Every structure is written in structure tokens, then in C-alpha cells.
Amino acid sequence: xxxxxxxxxxxxxxxxxxxxxxxxxxxxxxxxxxxxxxxxxxxxxxxxxxxxxxxxxxxxxxxxxxxxxxxxxxxxxxxxxxxxxxxxxxxxxxxxxxxxxxxxxxxxxxxxxxxxxxxxxxxxxxxxxxxxxxxxxxxxxxxxxxxxxxxxxxxxxxxxxxxxxxxxxxxxxxxxxxxxxxxxxxxxxxxxxxxxxxxxxx
Length: 202
Ligand SMILES: N[C@@H](CCC(=O)N[C@@H](CS)C(=O)NCC(=O)O)C(=O)O
Description:
alpha+beta; four-stranded mixed beta sheet; globular; Glutathione-S-Trfase_C_sf
């Protein structure tokens, strides 16, 4: 199996963590989707990472579809419940975490533009999405919809989203008044799968 990705993408990290947790061996093909010349569109017409190529040469994108494919392989540990509606609820939490990644990524891209071209109102809108998404996740943890001890697709995606906020210094105060999210990421960041997929420092 080959994973097309970059070491800084939280979406790619989500898939790498899943593969590592399940002990599935894979080759990592490092591609930079934002470089003028890159090979990503060869696998995903949208030019985005991650993309997964199976040993049979089948190509899967984007990350929720890849996650579903990996889960369909039936390799332990299961990262989704078998009951379909319960699984859909976890997928919805994954979508929420992915949305936080999208908003954070948008902010990072916007801030990389010349200052005079940056839209402060758009930056504010995206920051609101991050903040509301995190508040909702904290509430789910309080209500018991999610647990800080659980390893599943939702908690993996949440930890990857927060790892990206930390890495790019987006919403640096995210941990204030969100003690359960802090606990959740403390637990997950101790795992080997997260240690091995930490984004590069420089
Ligand atoms: N919804 C996609 C989002 C993937 C995504 O936005 N990846 C970024 C890297 S973090 C990318 O490849 N961007 C390239 C581009 O937008 O051209 C997924 O879940 O796979």
C-alpha cells in the first residue's frame, strides 16, 4: 500500500495514524501539493493529499473515504462501531474535526499571502469555525458522547486537528476552558502512532 501525502498535513496524519494503529505496512510517498510542480494530481484530480494506492493499484481519496476503506479491511483494532448509525455518529465527529482542519488550513494559507491581500473578515470567520467546533467537541466530551480514553476514528481526527493547531499556532489559546479536549490529546499524543507522525519542527 502507498500513501501519497505530506508530513505536515493533518488529513494525511489521520490516515497514517490509522494505518500504524492497525499495523498495516505502507510506503509513504512525500508530495508537496502546494508546490508548482507536484505529482498529486496524478492520484487525485483535486490535487489534494492524502491519496491511497492499494497493492492492486486502486486509488482512494479523500481522507474520509480512505478511512472507510481502511476500516473495511477488517483489521483490528476496529476504529468504528459495527452498528451503522453508531458508526455514522463517529463519522460526523470526524467531519467536525476535518472541518476544524479545513478552517485552520484556510487561515494558514490566508496568512501566507501579502498582508495587504489578507482578508481580516475571512480570517475571523475561519477562527470562529475553529472555536465553535472545539466548543462542540468539548461539550460532547462533557455529555459522554465521546470519551477521552477512546481510540476511534473521531478521537484520532480530533487529535490530528489539534496537533495541526499547535503546529501552525492557529488559535494558540484553544486549551483554555477546554480541559477534556486537553486530556484527550494528552492521552493520544502519548501513543507511538502519534509520536511517529508528529509534523517536522522546521
Ligand atoms: N477533504 C480533504 C482535504 C485534504 C486537504 O485539504 N489537503 C491539503 C493538504 S493539508 C491539500 O492537499 N491541499 C492542496 C490544495 O488545496 O491544492 C481530505 O479530507 O482529504
